[in-house]
Structure formats: C-alpha cells, structure tokens
Amino acid sequence: MRYRLLGRTGLRVSELCLGAMMFGGGGSSGASREEAGAIVKRFADAGGNFIDTANRYARGESERIVGELIRPDRDRWVLATKYTLSTDPDDPNAGGSHRKSLRRAIDASLERLGTDYIDLYWVHIWDAFTPVEEVIAALDDLVRSGKVLYVGISDTPAWIVARAVTLAEERGLSPFCALQVPYSLVRRTVERELLPMARALDLAVTGWAPLGGGLLTGRYGSDREAPGDGRKAGSTVSERDLAIADALNAVAAARGASASQVAIAWVRAQQRRALTIPIVGVRTEAQLADNLGAVEIDLEPAELERLDEASRITLGFPGDFGGASLAHGDTFDRVDDHRRTIDPLV
Fold first, then answer.
1. Which residues, in sequence order, are bridge partners of residue 52?
2. Would strands 204-208 and 178-182 be described as parallel, antiparallel, or unpaired?
C-alpha cells in the first residue's frame, strides 16, 4: 500500500479507503461485528489507514463498530465520518448542514466513535436551505475547537464546492480539502465538472461505488447469465453497461485478475484527472482480500484505452464546444503548457 497526500494538506492517507457503510445493520446485507473486525485487521495489515463511515450508516451502528475496532490504535487511523442526513424525519432540524444540526451530529458521532476528534469530517450531501457562508464558518469553528482536523464535502455540485473553497480561503477559514463522489467505469459523469474542479483546487477525490453497484464484479456480461440478486425488481442493465462489463472482463481475464480488481485499478489510475482514492466498501473479509489486489495492478496504456473506448462519455457543453481556434488561432498546439495534465475543455 502506498500513501497519498489528502489534497493540499500534509495528511497521508492510504491509496485505498475502507468504506464502512455495510458495517452493522444485521441480515445478509451487513457485516457483523466479528466480520467487520476481520475486515479492518486485514486492511490494516495491508498498510491501510483511511476508514470512512457516517452517522446514518446502519443508524449509527457503523460508527460504533468502527470506533471500537480502531480504538486500540486510534492515532494510527485517519478516521472520516459525515453529517447532514436527517436522523429524525419528523424534525426539520434533525438534518441539514446548519449550525444546530452540525452541533448535534458532531457530539453524537464523537460519542459513538469513542474518540475526542475526527480526522476528516464530511458534509454528506448539500443542504439547499443553509447558506454556504454558514456552513464554512460552522465547520471552521469545529476545526478551531480541535474536534475536527480537516473538512470535506460529498455529493454536491461543482459550482457550490468551488464557491465554498474560495470563500473559505478569502476569509481565512478552513477550506474543503477533499471531495467524495460516485466514480466508476459505468458512472463517469463526474469527469464533466467535478473532477476538473477538484484538480484545479487540489482537492483529493474519494470515489464511492467503484464497482458500479455490482456491475463491475465479473457477474455481468453479454456472455453470462445475469445474477438473480443485487438488482431491484424491474431494473435493467443497459447495452452500454454490458459493453463495459465485457471489456472489463476481457482485460481481467488476460491479466489473470478479477474484474473487481481491474475496476478499482482503473479508478486508481485516473490521477491525471484528479487525485483519486477508491473507496472499497465490503461486507466480507474475502471481498476485501480480492479488492486489495487492485494496488498491484498498473494498467497498461492499451488496457486503459480499451476500457475508455467502452465507457467514455460525451462532455457536453462547454466541454465539447471546440473553441480552441477561436481563442488561440493556429498556435494552440505550439504552446507548451506545463500545467496541462488532461485535454482542456475546448
């Protein structure tokens, strides 16, 4: 396991993040306390130090389990959790990003986690009612209090994130250092606005659902029978999804790797787009053991091109406007831009 700097901070986090959404809850969809313990141990033994949970996962049980498991070596772990989602549907202030919700959520999370600080505190989803100025000021108060070390934002439009970061910097407040979004071969729409923004603002990107909700695990393909589980009644798998799965399965078979490993390795390989850290959310130790193999896979250019050809999206306006000649005449290709890492929006 290698480590990455969390955006523009000096904090070192493992190149994979362990997602704890499936810790607790009981039943076949959640990991028991014992299985979660085996998962965390395997992740730590592999060099992992970055773990992600939320106050709403399994109604708080995920935080309790994570806190108990990392407590013997708490300072080694980079612990991330979230707030904003409502914890009481009948109380209008039980969710959101405002100060009252924040105070309520942070104190409850610290108690469940059994710790006096959180390394990375996420705004889980954007609250349209709370002004961005209130959010960044309230989060800065938490950082100054020592309860939180760094702040991040999840599942929010790029223009809001950019405004929040800019306001925080101008006002001497703690800016967001990380962004959490869904990112996989079957879900690349974040490449239109969110990843270019993250690259420009030096935000680390933690990508959830790198396996596309199960589509990229090797169970799907035009040459295999679709599994009877894991899909809601009436849902369908598109021809595009099957084409992506076919390309992924072929690359994996040629490498002697699992489809899951290659899918995660693809997200890990997108460093030219943004600093990407895949979140591996697993229910069993066996699933984690397989996922960890992704760090041993460095995809070749031909493999990346094959996967990109099957999965690429149209950027839409202004990404595909094609205005380079209007701004640069015939000189665009003669300018050496040391800051250019991917094709610009032209």
1. 19, 80
2. parallel
Q: Which residue has the tokens 């202004």?
A: 318
Taken as a whole, the chain contains a residue count of 346
R_g of the chain computed on alpha carbons:
21
Select from 78, 68, 81, 7 the least CA-distant residue to 32: 68
Structure tokens at 315: 């950027």
**281, containing H or E segment:** strand 276-281
Catalytic annotation, residues: 57
Side chain identity at 177, as an amino acid letter? C
Q: What residue spans of the chain are helical by DSSP H?
A: 33-45, 61-70, 99-113, 132-145, 158-170, 194-201, 239-255, 259-268, 285-292, 301-311, 324-328
Q: Which structure tokens are listed for 78?
A: 């980079």
Instruction: Classify burial at 90, counting beta carbons within 10 Å of its beta carbon; exposed 0-12, middle 13-18, buried 19 or more.
Output: exposed
The DSSP bridge partners found for residue 87 are none
Helix, strand, or coil here: 128? coil
Domains of the chain: 3-313 (3.20.20.100), 316-346 (no CATH)
Q: CA 274, CA 309: separation in Å to the nearest integer? A: 20
Q: What is the pTM of this model?
A: 0.93
User: Which stretches in the chain have pLDDT values below 70?
Assistant: 26-28, 228-235, 323-324, 341-346
The DSSP code sequence of 25-64 is S-STTSB-HHHHHHHHHHHHHTT--EEE--TTGGGGHHHH
- Using alpha carbons, select from 122, 197, 120 the residue that is nearest to residue 157: 197
- State the Cα–Cα distance between residues 270 and 304, nearest whole angstrom: 10
- By C-alpha distance, which of 170, 200, 186 is closest to 246? 186
**Sole residue written with tokens 């809001």:** 160
- CB burial of residue 306 (10 Å; 0-12, 13-18, 19+): middle
Residue (of 117, 118, 115, 24) closest to 80 by Cα position: 118
Distance CA 46, CA 27 (A): 28
- pLDDT value of residue 333: 84
- What pLDDT does residue 322 have? 72
